[in-house]
Design goal:
Blueprint (H helix, E strand, L loop, with lengths): L4 H10 L26 H7 L15 H13 L1 H8 L10 H10 L3 E2 L7 E5 L5 E10 L3 E9 L11 E8 L5 E5 L13 H10 L15 H9 L11 H11 L9 H13 L10 H8 L3
Antiparallel strand pairs: 1-6, 2-3, 2-6, 3-4, 4-5
């Protein structure tokens, strides 16, 4: 499995609005049975994985459990442990321990990148809260955190999952754990690469062949090589190119997620958002005016 940073951020964003529970019931609901007793699906699910932590964690503060759960959902248990630098039966539900695992591996940083695990300290210097970095600009670091609230500043036991932001120089930031993600594939596509994929999918360029030039012959193929949602899949190589550009797993199967990502790409690029890659969308992908 490829461990691209975008996947864990997608998982974390989908959890915004989750509220901790009053008891060990309705754990999968975002809002039912809301309370202040630290029961969550995040700790509950991780408790069911043999040897993930050194003991059961449901009913205890859960900000680090939230981050770890997102990694498990995104990449599976073994990859999550590697990315989080955690051993079996780890103490990683505790923020200080979790940060130290990164530090031991030389993966604790002082400046943020998207996908980092951010750690916060209290006024005494104790590391007591954590979250996931989903964006960074020249002024702020943007996070998604479990067991916090929407109030400004660090809220270390706020009871919900919220998106937050902090000034880059904020004195409560203790450091950034940097998982060793796989490099995200390039989103640029050359005409030569597209021609090779089209040939692999059964199209032909009889006059000029694979020459890296987008002329009338390529335009004719692009009109026919429409990538759209299908139950009987074809054009798998061309679909993989589209998936790489729109940022979803490149499995060659144009399903619901791929169509949604195509529509998003089309909207962002001034195209009709029909979820189908035909001539106009191919030209945009290939940089043809």
């Amino acid at each position: 499995m490829s461990c691209y940073v975008e996947k864990v951020i997608e998982i974390a964003k989908a959890e915004i609005g989750y509220l901790e529970k009053a008891s060990n019931s309705n754990l999968d609901s975002k809002t039912l049975n809301a309370g202040r007793n630290n029961f969550t699906k995040y700790a509950g699910d991780l408790d069911n994985i043999p040897g993930f932590y050194n003991g059961k964690k449901n009913g205890y503060p859960w900000c680090d459990c939230f981050v770890d759960w997102c990694f498990v959902k995104a990449y599976g248990v073994d990859n999550a442990k590697k990315l989080l630098c955690q051993p079996n039966k780890s103490l990683g539900a505790g923020c200080q321990y979790s940060m130290n695992y990164y530090k031991t591996k030389g993966q604790l940083k002082t400046t943020p990148k998207i996908g980092d695990q951010i750690f916060f300290k209290d006024s005494s210097g104790e590391v007591n809260h954590t979250g996931l970095v989903y964006d960074v600009d020249k002024t702020y670091v943007y996070t998604i955190e479990g067991n916090t609230s929407s109030a400004s500043g660090v809220v270390a036991n706020g009871g919900g999952v919220f998106a937050k932001k902090y000034m880059l120089g904020y004195n409560r930031i203790a450091g950034y754990g940097r998982p060793a993600y796989d490099a995200t594939p390039s989103k640029t596509v050359t005409v030569l690469e597209w021609q090779k994929a089209a040939i692999a999918d059964g199209f032909k360029f009889p006059k000029y062949g694979v020459d890296g030039q987008f002329g009338a012959e390529c335009e004719s193929v692009a009109k026919k090589a429409i990538v759209r949602r299908r139950y009987l899949y074809k054009y798998k190589n061309l679909t993989k190119i589209v998936q790489r550009v729109v940022g979803v797993e490149a499995d060659g199967l144009c399903g619901q997620k791929t169509v949604a990502a195509i529509k998003k790409y089309q909207l962002e690029n001034g195209l009709v958002a029909d979820g189908e890659v035909g001539l106009k969308t191919w030209k945009k992908i290939l940089g043809i005016r």
